[in-house]
# Entry
Amino acid sequence: MAKSDNLLEIEWEGLVELDEEFEKMEEEFEEILVEEYTKYGLLVEEGAKALAHRDDGDLEETIRFNPAEVEADSVSVEGGANAEHALVRHEAPYRPGTHDKYENGSKFKKYYLNGRGRKTLRKPDWRGYRPGRKFLENAIKATENDYYNMNERILDRTLGEKK
# Structure
């Protein structure tokens, strides 16, 4: 501190270095964010495929999640299924009872039980959820703890030893 002409003068050292550190942290944060959210998207994709109906398998094959993208002040992971019947299978209510399946002129007696076909009924549960309707929604619900853990990991990785 120096005093001249009745003015108090304070000099801060290291502000340039601090500003550079913040810029570097922002870049690291974005890289970590994209990496972690992309991994989370792949986990949800895995869950959605495991929970999707299985008849011919074409619904499972169309489920895809893109890598995470950062835009302005948000991060997003887009994904879903593009099969024609994906939305119907996801949203339609279950049809109670036992029903026959008709395909290519063939009849399969008692193929459906309470809205799930034989192949879907044989699929194992995934994280406590049964395959069937709401496969995307249930994949998100089943990975809720992973989501919160991921956000904590992003913070820890970004701050590292800077905390």
Summary: The radius of gyration is 26 Å. Helices lie at 15-51, 58-62, 86-91, 118-122, 135-142, 144-159. The first helix runs from residue 15 to 51. The mean pLDDT is 90.
